[in-house]
Amino acid sequence: MALTQEQIVNFLKNYGYVFANSEIYGGLANAWDYGPLGVLLKRNIKNLWWNEFVTKNPEAVGLDSSILNNNNIWKASGHLSNFSDPLIDCKGCHNRFRADKLIEESVKNAKVTEQTSFTELEKIIKENKVKCPVCGKSDWTPIRKFNLMFKTHQGVIEDDSNAIYLRPETAQGIFINFLNIQRSLRLKLPFAVGQIGKTFRNEITPGNFIFRTREFEQMELEYFVYPKQAEDVFNDQLEKIKKFLFKTLKINETNIHLKEHKPDELSHYSKRTIDIEYHFPHGWSELWGIANRTDFDLKAHAAHSKANLWYLDQTNNEKVVPFVIEPSVGVERLLYAIVVDALEIEKLKDDETREVLHLPFALAPYKVAVLPLVNKLNKEANKVFTTLVDAGIETVYDVSGSIGKRYRRQDAIGTPYCITYDFEANDDKSVTIRHRDSMKQERIAINKLVDFFKKEY
Q1: Spatial distance between the Cα atoms of 70 and 412, rounded to a whole number of angstroms
Q2: pLDDT for the residue numbered 1
Q3: What local confidence, expressed as pLDDT, does residue 34 receive?
Q4: Which residues in the chain show pLDDT less than 70?
Q5: For residue 327, cis peptide bond before it (omega within 30 degrees of 0)
Q6: Shortest CA distance to 51 belongs to which of 362, 394, 451?
Q7: Closest CA to 293 of 238, 242, 230
Q8: Alpha-carbon Rg for the chain in angstroms
């Protein structure tokens, strides 16, 4: 049975994954904090992505660029002039909306793209008498541009001369460092640069829990290739994304589909774009994107900065401006999809149920929970806990409540294995291991525990 967004939100809050930001002060709209387990899950997601797309790829290197940048970067990239949404206000209740999203949610079969003009959007709204989702009136202001860049000031005086912006994507930091990276490591085409970092977008209508927020983390790979290699690298990266989703993260393939952008739907920099969409509680929405950005970014920065952002092909002594293939995914969006996919309210015998988060071993915040059967066994059980932690196995020690309640708690937070230290353990030097998904139990010698769990890594 599919769970609702409200059920997912409540679950993640109750078990320490995600909290509402500034909750004791009434909250801050669409801002979220990641609790003890959320931090661990995010870290595991980022580590797995980095390992798969950077560490395992001999052509890939990493970068950590700054959140604040010279404003000329955003002029060259087009963000200051083009990075905007169509904003429309309801005259009745004064709520603001993205006009394109308002149409998509209200008008069946309406075709709206990035290239749809404000005049066309206003015509669709008027002809279909689109109503305000809040007050129900159909009385709208003209549509106007709303730039999504977060503006701040650098320095002591707050005026336009020292205005600066928080980055809306991590990609530009890679493009402006193209020559630094290539020359310092003497890289040859093709090569890729991976980056994980915070980005900020002043969205008009954020929402759907952590799906769309104003502050989020991106995991992006910029693959610099010869133009003739672009299509092959695009397809290769798409297959790697699918393998990562289905094999590594264990996402159900029926909850994923690919949406290829038509020519009139492409961004100004893109020759080809595919959205990997996931079936979230609010519907099908983009989870991961992959784009052929052509040579747009390097040429734009070269034109504005007067720097020579080209690659010298030494085989024929020709200057090449590489094409860029960009797979990009948000950490929080991916976390949301993982939880939606893994969380189950399982029916047991006698009309009982249990919450179980079927996370793969590599994703689980804790791999093992050590549970002494009673408090009298704490000293001996704690030795087992210490042995596992010292071996680098993420382990939690849980003594609160009955053994049954502790099993249920560990099932819910996704811990794959529970170790029960009982009275027999002192005699046979063995413990009972309980498997989360099957709830089956087996007896294993204490001195073999580390090897048992290390096999899972």
Answers
A1: 46
A2: 64
A3: 98
A4: 1
A5: no
A6: 362
A7: 230
A8: 26
Handedness of CA 354, 357, 361, 367 (dihedral sign): negative
Q: E strands within 76-123?
A: 84-89, 96-98
Q: Which amino acid is at 279?
A: H
Other C-beta atoms lying within 10 Å of the C-beta of residue 357: 26
For 295, list phi and psi in degrees, rounded to 5: -105, 20
| pLDDT for the residue numbered 113 | 84
Determine if residue 297 is left, alpha or beta; phi over 0 gives left, psi from -120 to 50 gives alpha, anything else beta.
Answer: alpha
CB atoms closer than 10 angstroms to residue 23 = 11
Can you tell me whether residue 68 is helix, strand or coil?
strand
CA atoms lying within 13 Å on the CB side of residue 6 = 0
DSSP bridge pairs for 84: 147
The rounded Cα 145 to chain-centroid distance in angstroms is 27
Burial of 165 (0-12, 13-18, 19+ CB in 10 A): buried
DSSP codes joined into one string, 164-231: EEE-S-SHHHHHHTHHHHHHHTT--SSEEEEEEEEEE---SS-BTTTTB-SEEEEEEEEEEE-GGGHH
End-to-end CA gap in the chain: 31
Using the CB atoms, write b or e for 44-58: b if 16+ within 10 Å: bbeebbbebbbeebe
pLDDT in tens, 114-134: 889 999 999 999 999 999 999
Residues in the chain: 457
Q: How many CA atoms lie within 13 Å of 134's alpha carbon, on the beta-carbon side?
A: 12
Report the alpha-carbon angle 401-406-410, nearest 5.
150
Measured torsion, CA atoms of residues 294, 277, 30, 132, in degrees rounded to the nearest 10 = 100
Q: pLDDT of 41-82, one tens digit each?
A: 999 999 999 999 999 999 999 999 999 999 999 999 999 988
Amino acid at 171: A
